[in-house]
Amino acid sequence: MTRALFIIDVQNDFTEGGALAVTGGAAVTAGISALLAAHPQAYRHIFASRDWHTADSDNGGHIALTGEPDFVSTWPVHCVAGTPGAEYHPDLVLPDRAVHIYKGQGEPGYSIFEGKTGVGDTLGALLAQRGVTDVDVVGLATDHCVRASTLDALEHGQHVRVFTDLIAGVDESASQAALAELAHMGAVLAVSTTTTVLD
């Protein structure tokens, strides 16, 4: 068994004070860093995604450049490549081996599987190359990118755990519905502090 950690979109624009702030985002960030510090050898492979939207573009209809966003399929300008809002939250401490996945370049891009590394590698290919069979998922936001990334991981045949203490959502009811859906599809809902993480 080879386990990987997916860290989804822990970015300034998705945490308190950002363009699309998720309540509890900063606490999730601190919790992820604490997990990595407590179990430095638990994850041979760590993949961290970021929305990395193209500037001055609606990114496939994802960003409302004119008019009001509906906060369902259109959103305010956020996580524009190279801007402070697109950077990781400053409290996220990643090891050097972490692989950075950029998604939403000219398109919506909710799932980490829709992104690529800086040299163009897809996540699916990297997981296959590295023999990853099990994935733990943390990050933002439960009802959007965490949901999409988890569903794609399950579709790719991974055994998936979602650490419910290390995620936060935009809408409480939608987040609870997302977690119920993920559990129904085969994900294990767990708490990081009471789960055995292999060192």
UniProtKB/TrEMBL annotation:
GO terms for biological process: pyridine nucleotide biosynthetic process. GO terms for molecular function: metal ion binding; nicotinamidase activity. Pathway: Cofactor biosynthesis; nicotinate biosynthesis; nicotinate from nicotinamide: step 1/1. Its EC number is 3.5.1.19. InterPro entries: Isochorismatase-like_dom, Isochorismatase-like_sf, Isochorismatase_Nicotinamidase. The keyword Translocase does not apply. Pfam families: Isochorismatase. The keyword Metal-binding applies. Keywords: Hydrolase, Metal-binding, Pyridine nucleotide biosynthesis. SUPFAM superfamilies: Isochorismatase-like hydrolases (SSF52499). Residues 4-190 form the Isochorismatase-like domain. Belongs to the isochorismatase family. This is nicotinamidase. It comes from Cryobacterium roopkundense.
